[in-house]
C-alpha cells in the first residue's frame, strides 16, 4: 500500500476503529472504516458512492445515507445473501439510478461525507426494509402491485423516497 495513503488513513480515522483500505476514487480514499461491508472491493464501494448520489443526491445527506442503509439491509437479506455490493446495485430492475446519467457523473464532496457518515452511524432503516422508490418517478408497475399497495401503512419516507419492507417477512 502506498505510504502516503497509509498516513492519510491513520490521520483521518480514529485509532480505535479498524480500517480496511480498499482503493481510491476521484482522489478520495475508499475504506470500509466501520466494517459495514466485509469483503467489499474498490469496485463495490465506488458503486455504493455512485448509487447514493444517483438515487438520492437531490435529497441531500439524509437521503443518501438512507440509500446506503437500504443497500446494507439487502446484504443481510436472504434474497441477496452472498452477492457483492456491485452485483446488488447493478442487478437489472433494482436501482433506476444505476442507468441514469448521475451514476457516471462527477461526485460532489458531500457524497463522500454522507456515505462515510452512513457507514459510521446507526442504520435507521428497519432490518426488513429492503425496497425503496420515488413514487412520483418510478415506472415499475409490478412494484406498485406487489410491494407498495399491500404495505402503504408501513412506508417510511425519507426525502423523495419511500422505503418498504419485504412483504414475505
Task: Walk me through what this model shows.
The chain is α+β, with helices and mostly antiparallel strands and 169 residues long. The chain has one domain (3-165). The protein is built from six helices and five strands. It has helices spanning 3-12, 42-56, 60-76, 85-90, 109-120, 141-148; strands spanning 21-25, 28-31, 129-133, 156-158, 161-165. Helix 2 crosses helix 3 and helix 3 crosses helix 5 (109-120).
Oligomer: single chain
Total of domains: 1
| SSE topology string | HEEHHHHEHEE
What distance lies between the first and last C-alpha atoms, to the nearest angstrom? 43 Å
Total DSSP E strands: 5
Quote the beta fraction.
5-15%
Largest beta-sheet characterization:
3 strands, antiparallel
Gyration radius, rounded:
16 Å
**What average pLDDT do the residues reach?**
79
In short:
It is built from six helices and five strands, in the order H-E-E-H-H-H-H-E-H-E-E. It has 169 residues and is of the alpha+beta class. The protein has one domain.
Annotation keywords:
169 residues, alpha+beta, three-stranded antiparallel beta sheet, globular, disordered N terminus
Question: Helix and strand layout, with pairings?
Answer:
Layout: H1 3-12, E1 21-25, E2 28-31, H2 42-56, H3 60-76, H4 85-90, H5 109-120, E3 129-133, H6 141-148, E4 156-158, E5 161-165
Antiparallel strand pairs: 1-2, 3-5, 4-5
